[in-house]
Amino acid sequence: MTENLYIYGKNAVIEALRSGTRNFNKILIADSMRFDEKNEQIKSLAKDSGIIFQFVKKEKLNQIAPLVQHQGVIALISPIQYTELENFLETFKDESAPLIILDGIEDSHNLGAIIRSAVCAGIKGIILPSRRSAQINSTVEKTSAGAINRISIIKVNSLVNAVQKLQEHNYWVIASDHHANDNYFDIDYTDMNFAIIMGAEHSGISKSLLKLADYRVKIPMLTNFNSLNVSNATAIILFESVKQKLTKK
Amino acid sequence: MTENLYIYGKNAVIEALRSGTRNFNKILIADSMRFDEKNEQIKSLAKDSGIIFQFVKKEKLNQIAPLVQHQGVIALISPIQYTELENFLETFKDESAPLIILDGIEDSHNLGAIIRSAVCAGIKGIILPSRRSAQINSTVEKTSAGAINRISIIKVNSLVNAVQKLQEHNYWVIASDHHANDNYFDIDYTDMNFAIIMGAEHSGISKSLLKLADYRVKIPMLTNFNSLNVSNATAIILFESVKQKLTKK
Q1: pTM exceeds 0.80 for this model
Q2: B123 to chain A: nearest residue by CA?
Q3: Do B222 and A235 touch (CB under 8 A)?
Q4: Phi and psi based region of residue B122 (left: phi greater than 0; alpha: psi -120 to 50; beta: remaining)
Q5: Are A54 and A27 in contact (CB under 8 A)?
Q6: Do A37 and A101 reside in the same domain of the chain?
Q7: What is the pLDDT, as a whole number, of residue A1?
Q8: Which of A50, A103, A98 is nearest to A212 (CA)?
Q9: So what's the pLDDT on residue B1?
Q10: Conformational region of residue B40, where left means phi above 0, alpha means psi within -120 to 50, and beta covers everything else
Q11: What are B213-233's pLDDT values in tens digits?
Q12: CB contacts, 8 Å: A219 with chain B
């Protein structure tokens, strides 16, 4: 039997329902909740899939998920299914499938925001190390606004091995490193399958990974305050790739 | 007498010390802390300014700042000084001083990350409404990594009045709105003094502000998942402006 986890927030629950890949135990809705479009959507998606929903006192929800904005909706569901890197490469062998590699991101809010931007930018998978990394928990599900259900999450024991495997499969590996000479916008993202490595909040990318990368790029600043939040830095690079793809003649 | 607030985290404390604009009551350091470069910096900056620092048990810090990553350092200091819009315009009347206007951002993590990206991107001020907005608290200080000490924070009663005043002062006002026709990268940020309006996490920008804006721009996506985190969206637009400024021939 799989352990259930709770997810909260309207978007997180709607996207999990839509994905069709999560097993729902039940959905709890605050009985005091005003019914808006999103709540109606949750009710109708749940009905269509035969999922139980219960109206409960808001205090009950506050007990289950304290100190968070649950927006009156909590679902008890199965954790996401991780994807094997081998399977990912097989699935996408005939199409472009850009990736992000996160080398030791610790903060769940950052991980959630990165997943969200990644889905918006057409990224197909996120590679995480099995140790020294934020794991997919309720906070990540919420801050991803449900985007976690639209992307492959790949957990690997060794990021070095994963990068080598990607390179064997003709991926160009780009490391974000503020000591780099090249700028992130000097690269042409449109004619290659890429994997972008982003480093941990404090320590950056490990040396062994930096050495393997095909490109190193920095985000140039206008001031000497050189310290972007890692999810913001990821979004900046990703949306340069989006822009290039949309504007390429 | 001003009320003290606590700020935590090494960067937040270092930047507050460096700014010279904050009154420190004292700095508490965990006695168990291993001394690295940043801690030494805190000690030496504090000594230079005659600020008391105390070594205390880590449990004491956990009591003062529960559930957060204080990194072994907490400072009790005066809140930031807000800037009047009039004074800001007077101070920067002879130079370019781009601004961000935040229409009802609720989440402290988002506000902190936006301030951080803004400073990196050479933005000189953040305009917040006095109501319906996250306020500058300990979380914002921490998630801004101290950037809050390098930018003017301007609180206004009416964003509409503020926008009109900016327009009288030859600012071009750009609203980020996902219904817009133009893309954020269609605009030339290099030959104007701009103010970018970003909307609240759920409700976006209010209609009265949208109507006033000189430009509306969207961030185009590669998928139908159209839902960027607001700090990521802000970073994407800001760094397009940085890129243009750095690459303009």
Answers
A1: yes
A2: A222
A3: no
A4: left
A5: yes
A6: no
A7: 41
A8: A103
A9: 40
A10: alpha
A11: 999 999 999 999 878 999 999
A12: 239
Q: How many domains does chain B have?
A: 2
Across A136-149, average pLDDT: 93
d(CA B23, CA A37): 48
What was the pLDDT predicted at A57? 93
Q: Are residues B73 and B96 in the same domain?
A: no
B248 part of contact set with chain A, CB < 8 Å: no
For residue B195, the surrounding DSSP H or E stretch is strand B193-199
Asked whether the beta carbons of A31 and A57 are under 8 A apart, the reply is yes
Instruction: Check residue B165 and give its pLDDT.
Output: 98
Mutate which: A222, A244, A245, vs B, most B CBs within 10 A:
A222
Query: Does B179 have pLDDT greater than 90?
Result: yes
Query: What CATH number has the domain bearing residue B40?
Result: 3.30.1330.30
Q: Which of A44-53, B11-20, B158-167, B196-205 has the highest mean pLDDT?
A: B158-167
Q: Quick one: A90 and A60 in the same domain?
A: no
Find chain B residues with C-beta within 8 A of A225's C-beta. Answer: 119-120, 147, 150
Please give the residue of chain B at the shortest CA–CA distance from A232.
B232
Tell me, what's the ipTM? Answer: 0.93
Of residues A200 and A194, more confidence is placed in A194
- Out of A45, A77, A109, pick the residue that ends a domain: A77
Print the domain residue range for A32: 5-77
Q: What CA–CA distance (Å, rounded) separates A156 from B96?
A: 48
Domain with residue B217: its CATH number is 3.40.1280.10
Q: What is the pLDDT of residue B2?
A: 52
What lies within 8 Å, CB to CB, of A112 at 6+ separation is A139, A140, A141, A142, A143, A144, A145, A148
Answer for the pair B149, B16: CB distance below 8 angstroms, yes or no. Answer: yes
Per residue, what are the HEC states of A32-63?
A: CCCCCHHHHHHHHHHHHCCCCEEEECHHHHHH
Distances (CA, A) of B178 to A12, A116, B125, B149, B182: 20, 16, 24, 31, 10
Is B220 found in the same domain as B119? Answer: yes
> Lowest-confidence range among A12-16, A178-182, B66-70?
B66-70
